């Protein structure tokens, strides 16, 4: 019973391996999120590359960002990236559509209307082309971003005209009969 009170499940006969395992478990339990996030950034286990953004966007601090492209679409209009950044506050200007999913750390996003939202691991957020957001990172954030390059206004007008012509030339021709992933 005395050994159980000491936390030694081996009855006081712990060998070097058991002691090492117990020490490792104790270290894991004692870790702070701040220390883990700093260690994650320093370790760079995802092999992210430096991704500096314009200094004039920085409002406060000295944020350092990194990025790695994970995939891209066959038409070049979409890509997926992993991005991380250290503490700081800055503006971000979107010239693309971007949907993010925070996978580590947290960030407070303030939109152009002044509405702030704290995002944590598992949260998603959408930034449309032409928007601006203020990012406030307390310590560290890592996200996966799904980026879509919207078609130009000229191309969109051309597509609308083409669809209208199809309707006039052949009723029902504008209906998409290709199979859909979600039955939609």
The rough form would be described as elongated
Q: How far apart, in Å, are the first and last alpha carbons?
A: 64 Å
Class by SSE composition: alpha+beta
Give the name of the CATH superfamily of the domain at 49-148. Answer: Jelly Rolls
CATH class of the domain at 49-148: Mainly Beta
Number of helices: 4
Spans of at least 5 consecutive residues whose pLDDT stays below 50 are 1-12, 28-32
Percentage of residues assigned to helices? 25-40%
Indicate the proportion of strand residues: 35-45%
How confident is the prediction overall: mean pLDDT? Answer: 79
Q: How are helices and strands ordered from N to C?
A: HHHEEEEEEEEH
> Which radius of gyration do the C-alpha atoms yield?
25 Å
Number of strands: 8
Would you give the CATH topology of the domain at 49-148?
Jelly Rolls
Quaternary structure state of the chains depicted: single chain
Largest sheet: 8 strands, antiparallel
CATH architecture of the domain at 49-148: Sandwich
Question: How do you describe this structure in short?
Answer:
This protein is an alpha+beta fold. The protein has helices at 2-5, 16-30, 33-43, 153-169, and strands spanning 49-50, 58-60, 65-72, 78-93, 97-110, 116-120, 124-127, 132-148.
Can you describe this structure?
It is a single chain. The chain is an alpha+beta fold and 184 residues long. The chain has a domain of 100 residues: Jelly Rolls (Sandwich). Helices cover 26% and strands 38% of the residues. The protein has 4 helices and 8 strands. Strands 1, 2, 3, 4, 5, 6, 7 and 8 form an 8-stranded antiparallel β-sheet that branches. A hairpin with a 5-residue loop joins strand 3 and strand 4. It is elongated, with a radius of gyration of 25 Å. The protein starts with a helix and ends in a 15-residue tail after the last helix. The N terminus is likely disordered.
């Amino acid at each position: 019973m005395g050994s159980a009170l000491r936390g030694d499940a081996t009855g006081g006969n712990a060998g070097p391996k058991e002691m090492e395992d117990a020490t490792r478990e104790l270290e894991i339990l004692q870790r702070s999120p701040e220390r883990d996030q700093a260690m994650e950034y320093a370790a760079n286990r995802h092999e992210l590359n430096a991704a500096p953004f314009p200094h004039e966007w920085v409002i406060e601090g000295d944020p350092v960002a990194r990025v790695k492209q994970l995939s891209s679409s066959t038409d070049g209009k979409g890509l997926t990236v992993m991005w991380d950044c250290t503490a700081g506050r800055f503006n971000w200007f979107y010239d693309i559509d971007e949907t993010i999913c925070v996978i580590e750390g947290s960030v407070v996003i303030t939109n152009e209307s002044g509405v702030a939202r704290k995002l944590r691991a598992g949260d998603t957020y959408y930034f449309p082309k032409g928007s601006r957001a203020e990012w406030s990172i307390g310590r560290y954030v890592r996200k996966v971003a799904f980026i879509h390059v919207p078609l130009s206004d000229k191309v969109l007008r051309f597509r609308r005209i083409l669809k209208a012509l199809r309707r006039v030339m052949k009723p029902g021709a504008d209906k998409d009969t290709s199979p859909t992933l979600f039955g939609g």
